């Protein structure tokens, strides 16, 4: 991925430390996602009333919307210890067996990017989730035997940016799937307001609204832009006002809609190379030199949400708003790029 200010993925250690400091610690502090919050609250309260471990929870949604934060909150609210792992770290069933067999009763196990776990581990996880038991294979070939091992009851919290990639048997074993949505500008203002207090930054409402509007519906980006505005105020203007916000965001190429370089590259490609579309996902990915997965899970959901592209059975199409935002007019001779039109992977 690029290192643009508006990529929703986390960028390095400094940002991780910063995120840790700003992470809400309870459901009450968690801004927005009111539906998901209500659903989680009920599930956790019921478990607590019966003094049992909560059902397994799957958190699905684009990067930076609060999946890791919610996993930590689940553990904190249920007053249980939290173990953190991730799909890429579980490349063999043995990796998972080691984690599962060392859990203490009631522990919350967070597996980030769960769609990237090894297949063999996935199968072990089915049994573990359902019966709190795993079968450990010993030996090879005809002499191989499986030894059953009982596990302490645990709550699995899985996070994924690609819930479509999860096999059905795994998805079905979660008691609840939370689909996180992009945040409204008003909600992002609340996120920023809270962050400004924690950063001891004096900033007015108008400025917060301006940052919120350019944050791609994503708290991680909102917080990152706020940091750059803080820098700008420190170095140049002495205070974080609308002038500082506009100048800082212009300096970092964040446009009025919060589009970043990759968003713009995708839009320009659809508009100019493909005459507004329709164009298929993999053709688009090749054209902008980015992986189809990134386009599909990071770029496209946001562009669809703000109404710049729509998905049709024949591929991605630019909307009239898109032509307007980029100051272009639809080509008067549609079909001139027909030979470049593919409708793969709709
Ligand atoms: N609802 C929220 N209220 C306040 N701050 C939030 C909220 N959601 C996320 N944040 C902030 O955004 C940052 C990123 O959130 P988080 O790390 O939980 O995202 P994520 O969904 O796990 O992203 P990824 O898919 O990249 O792992 C957090 O550090 C936190 O400061
Ligand atoms: Mg995360």
From TrEMBL:
Residues 53-184 form the AAA+ ATPase domain. Its EC number is 3.6.4.-. It comes from the Bacteria. One of its GO terms (molecular function) is hydrolase activity. ATP binds at residues 22-23, 64, 67-69, 130-132, 173, 183, 220. It is found in: Cytoplasm. Keywords: ATP-binding, Cytoplasm, DNA damage, DNA recombination, DNA repair, DNA-binding, Helicase, Hydrolase, Nucleotide-binding. The RuvA-RuvB-RuvC complex processes Holliday junction (HJ) DNA during genetic recombination and DNA repair, while the RuvA-RuvB complex plays an important role in the rescue of blocked DNA replication forks via replication fork reversal (RFR). RuvA specifically binds to HJ cruciform DNA, conferring on it an open structure. The RuvB hexamer acts as an ATP-dependent pump, pulling dsDNA into and through the RuvAB complex. RuvB forms 2 homohexamers on either side of HJ DNA bound by 1 or 2 RuvA tetramers; 4 subunits per hexamer contact DNA at a time. Homohexamer. Forms an RuvA(8)-RuvB(12)-Holliday junction (HJ) complex. HJ DNA is sandwiched between 2 RuvA tetramers; dsDNA enters through RuvA and exits via RuvB. An RuvB hexamer assembles on each DNA strand where it exits the tetramer. Each RuvB hexamer is contacted by two RuvA subunits (via domain III) on 2 adjacent RuvB subunits; this complex drives branch migration. In the full resolvosome a probable DNA-RuvA(4)-RuvB(12)-RuvC(2) complex forms which resolves the HJ. This is Holliday junction branch migration complex subunit RuvB. It comes from Gryllotalpicola reticulitermitis. The gene is ruvB.
């Amino acid at each position: 991925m690029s290192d643009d200010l508006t990529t929703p993925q986390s960028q390095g250690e400094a940002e991780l430390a910063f995120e840790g400091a700003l992470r809400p610690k309870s459901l009450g502090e968690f801004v927005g996602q009111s539906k998901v919050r209500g659903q989680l609250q009920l599930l956790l309260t019921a478990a607590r009333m019966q003094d049992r471990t909560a059902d397994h929870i799957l958190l699905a949604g684009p990067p930076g919307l609060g999946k890791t934060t919610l996993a930590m909150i689940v553990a904190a609210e249920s007053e249980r210890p939290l173990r953190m792992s991730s799909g890429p770290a579980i490349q063999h069933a043995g990796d998972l067996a080691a984690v599962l067999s060392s859990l203490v009763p009631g522990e919350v196990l967070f597996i980030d990017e769960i769609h990237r776990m090894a297949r063999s581990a996935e199968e072990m996880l089915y049994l573990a989730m359902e019966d709190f038991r795993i079968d450990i294979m010993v030996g090879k070939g005809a002499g191989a035997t499986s030894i059953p091992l009982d596990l302490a009851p645990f709550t699995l919290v899985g996070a994924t940016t690609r819930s479509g990639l999860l096999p059905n048997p795994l998805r079905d074993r979660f008691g609840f799937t939370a689909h996180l949505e992009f945040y409204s500008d008003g909600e992002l203002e609340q996120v920023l307001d809270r962050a400004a207090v924690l950063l001891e930054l004096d900033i007015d409402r108008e400025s917060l609204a301006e940052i919120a509007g350019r944050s791609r519906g994503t708290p991680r980006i909102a917080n990152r832009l706020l940091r750059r505005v803080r820098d700008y105020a420190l170095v140049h203007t002495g205070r974080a006002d609308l002038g500082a916000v506009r100048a800082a965001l212009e300096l970092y190429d964040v446009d009025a809609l919060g589009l970043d370089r990759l968003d713009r590259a995708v839009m320009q490609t659809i508009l100019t190379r493909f005459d507004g579309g329709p164009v298929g996902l993999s053709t688009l990915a090749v054209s902008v030199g980015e992986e189809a997965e990134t386009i599909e899970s990071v770029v496209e959901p946001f562009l669809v949400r703000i109404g710049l592209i729509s998905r049709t059975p024949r591929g991605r199409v630019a909307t009239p708003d898109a032509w307007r935002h980029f100051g272009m007019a639809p080509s008067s001779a549609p079909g001139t790029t027909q030979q470049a039109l593919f409708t793969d992977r709709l």
